[in-house]
């Protein structure tokens, strides 16, 4: 059991260390949502309105970025070294996902701290729940990113899948336009989209919606986000067990 | 028993995903390969491209599972208990596999964590392998700044952290200059001698194989020749005569029916393995003297053993 957690913590620590040594690239990447928030929020004279979506986008972008490290690891041969070691496959998933989640959560929380001026701007917000929620959202995106990076062998393919999957999910999540203003078919699409619940729950716990005004209950939202985090984690544990010729070179 | 491989078969699925669901029927990379290594020795595996040597390496390193046959490595079955095998083998890949973002020391200690090493025991092991591979002054250098030879030595050091019984290397000399190559093999030999580690190295350099205890030549997914280099060369016997001539094909046809001769022709050279070289040269000089441009005679070398086993010429 000690060996198990030793492998998990090593992979997670390595993820954070690599981030730290390569921080200019990463900050450039995760800074984009903040620019989106400032420009679009100021344009509509409603910074609060676009804050939840921008937070989700930060978690999403940094999770994508850290998931890409799996593709680097495969290319650099590091993955092969891990796969021929006695470290359990599940420990490899957990190590990479925990490391990636930590980075994505830290960046989202840093954004949250800046955007709320250290938590002073929104008096009705519940910051401890928000922090936990950001970790959960970061976990969900990182785990999905891991599964895609594991299945798609090239960086180009990874980007193609991400563009096709993540960005549309984010766009129809209430981040850009509200669910209550949308047409019926779009509303159904939003209800089927797990990212909507991430967005809804952040909006609620920031105190931006009065009780009863939300389209879905906050508890239901948190449950959906938790399930959305758990399912890809199970998928990741499954795909890594299957031996694949893809990891040879 | 370090390795016991029995009737290994592996076929790559290269046709997967082709239109119409067709699958290319590829020749098996391993086709019923068997061998054993009983005592910790220095074994080299040679063979032309496609002979199955890399596939064998991947199976022994637990990266591929054979479709047929079984392999026992360090007392554990590779198919049913790969984790037990992994804990006892050290693997060095052909392609570089260090993390360029990390220092040498970090590369080593992170790898140690994967093998369950931590704390002072890990620190001691890192120091020990650094001494063994003469890396002490490079420990805090970033891995990406190292030369090819040094990187390879770090990779060997990393593979030895957990004191494996068997060290597997896939063409470890790839990309190394002659000096780095010589130094690497010196380290491998002393490792084997002093630490008693069994070493199994895939290589395409005959001079590297010459310094090993044992040489296995693969051909078409099977072991074609297996033995100590000196024994194999001695067993080849007789002499090798090479006749350079413009009419090589014709001469080869004429010489081929002779009993006890092994005649092959490559370009403008007829190569004849015969029991007694001088008398053969005398005969050919008499019958076809005006065809001959040059004649060379020598004792068989490992290159001839290799040629005999695989039909492939070694170009060094």
How does this structure look, described?
The complex is a heterodimer of chains A (249) and B (316). Chain A has ten helices and no strands. With 249 residues, chain A is mainly alpha-helical. In chain A, helix 3 crosses helix 9. The longest helix of chain A has 30 residues. The two termini of chain A are 31 Å apart. The mean pLDDT of chain A is 88. Chain B is 35% helix and 25% strand. Chain B is elongated, with a radius of gyration of 23 Å.
Compact summary:
The complex is a heterodimer of chains A (249) and B (316). Chain A is an all-alpha fold. Chain A has ten helices and no strands.
CATH class of the largest domain in chain B: Alpha Beta
Order of helices and strands of chain B: EEEHEEHEHHHEHEHEEHEHEEHEH
Strand order of the largest sheet of chain B: 6-7-8-3-9-10
Number of domains as seen in the coordinates of chain B: 2
Task: Please state the overall shape of chain A, judged from the principal axes of the Cα atoms.
Answer: globular
SSE run of chain A: HHHHHHHHHH
**In which range does the helix fraction of chain A lie?**
over 70%
The radius of gyration computed from the alpha-carbon positions of chain A, rounded to a whole number of angstroms, is: 18 Å
Number of domains of chain A: 1
Give the oligomer, counting copies of the same chain as homo and different chains as hetero. heterodimer
Low-confidence stretches of chain A: none
> What's the number of helices of chain B?
11
Global structural class of chain A? mainly alpha
Structural Rg of chain B: 23 Å
Chart the SSEs and their pairings.
The complex is a heterodimer of chains A (249) and B (316).
Chain A: H1 2-21, H2 23-43, H3 47-76, H4 78-83, H5 89-115, H6 127-151, H7 155-175, H8 184-191, H9 194-205, H10 218-239
Helix pairs in contact in A: 1-5, 2-3, 3-5, 3-6, 3-7, 3-9, 5-6, 6-9, 6-10, 7-9, 9-10
Chain B: E1 3-10, E2 30-37, E3 42-46, H1 53-60, E4 68-73, E5 76-77, H2 82-86, E6 89-92, H3 104-114, H4 119-132, H5 148-160, E7 166-170, H6 178-195, E8 198-202, H7 206-210, E9 214-219, E10 222-227, H8 229-236, E11 239-245, H9 248-255, E12 262-266, E13 269-274, H10 277-288, E14 292-298, H11 302-310
Parallel strand pairs in B: 3-8, 3-9, 6-7, 7-8
Antiparallel strand pairs in B: 1-2, 1-4, 4-5, 9-10, 11-13, 11-14, 12-13
Helix pairs in contact in B: 4-5, 5-6
């Amino acid at each position: 059991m000690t060996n198990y957690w030793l492998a998990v913590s090593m992979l997670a620590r390595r993820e954070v260390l690599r981030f730290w040594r390569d921080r200019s690239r990463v900050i450039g990447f995760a800074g984009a949502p903040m620019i989106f928030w400032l420009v679009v929020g100021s344009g509509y004279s409603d910074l609060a309105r676009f804050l939840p979506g921008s937070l989700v986008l930060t978690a999403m972008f940094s999770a994508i970025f850290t998931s890409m490290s799996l593709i680097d690891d495969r290319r650099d041969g590091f993955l092969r070294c891990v796969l021929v070691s006695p470290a359990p496959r599940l420990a490899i998933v957990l190590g990479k996902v925990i490391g990636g989640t930590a980075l994505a959560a830290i960046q989202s929380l840093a954004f949250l701290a800046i955007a709320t001026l250290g938590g002073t701007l929104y008096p009705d917000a519940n910051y401890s729940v928000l922090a936990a929620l950001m970790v959960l959202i970061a976990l969900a995106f990182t785990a999905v990113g891991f599964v895609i990076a594991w299945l798609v062998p090239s960086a180009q393919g990874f980007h193609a899948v991400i563009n096709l999957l993540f960005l549309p999910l984010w766009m129809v999540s209430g981040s850009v336009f509200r669910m209550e203003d949308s047409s019926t078919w779009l509303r159904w699409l939003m209800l089927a989209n797990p990212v909507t619940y991430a967005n809804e729950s952040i909006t609620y716990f920031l105190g931006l919606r009065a009780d009863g005004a939300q389209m879905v209950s906050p508890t239901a939202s948190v449950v959906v986000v938790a399930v959305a985090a758990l399912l890809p984690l199970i998928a990741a544990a499954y795909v890594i067990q299957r031996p694949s010729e893809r990891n040879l070179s | 028993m370090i390795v016991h491989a029995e009737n290994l078969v592996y076929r790559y699925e290269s046709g997967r995903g082709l239109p119409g669901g067709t699958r290319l029927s590829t020749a098996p990379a391993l086709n019923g390969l068997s061998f054993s290594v009983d005592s910790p020795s220095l074994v080299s595996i040679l063979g032309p491209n496609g002979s199955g040597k890399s596939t064998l390496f991947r199976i022994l390193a637990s990266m591929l599972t054979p479709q047929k046959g079984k392999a026992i490595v360090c007392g554990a079955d590779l198919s049913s208990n790969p984790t037990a095998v992994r804990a006892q083998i050290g693997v060095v890949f052909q392609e570089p596999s260090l993390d360029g973002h990390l220092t040498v020391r970090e590369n080593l200690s992170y790898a140690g964590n994967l093998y369950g090493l931590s704390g002072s025991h890990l620190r001691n092991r890192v120091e020990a392998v650094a001494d063994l591979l003469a890396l002490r002054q490079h420990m805090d250098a970033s891995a990406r700044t190292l030369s090819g030879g040094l990187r390879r030595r770090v990779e060997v050091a990393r593979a030895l952290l957990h004191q494996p019984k068997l060290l597997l290397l896939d063409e470890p000399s790839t990309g190394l200059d002659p000096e780095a190559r010589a130094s690497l093999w010196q380290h491998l030999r002393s490792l084997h001698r002093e630490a008693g580690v069994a070493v199994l190295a895939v290589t395409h350099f005959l001079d590297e194989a010459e310094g090993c205890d044992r040489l296995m030549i693969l051909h078409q997914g099977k072991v074609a020749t297996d033995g100590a280099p000196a024994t194999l060369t001695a067993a080849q016997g007789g002499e090798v005569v090479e006749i350079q001539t413009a009419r090589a094909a014709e001469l080869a046809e004429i010489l081929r029916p002779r009993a006890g001769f092994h005649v092959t022709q490559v370009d403008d050279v007829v190569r004849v393995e015969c029991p007694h070289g001088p008398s053969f040269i005398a005969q050919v000089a008499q019958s076809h003297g005006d065809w001959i441009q040059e004649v060379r005679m020598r004792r068989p070398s490992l290159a001839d053993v290799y040629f005999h086993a695989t039909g492939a010429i070694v170009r060094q």
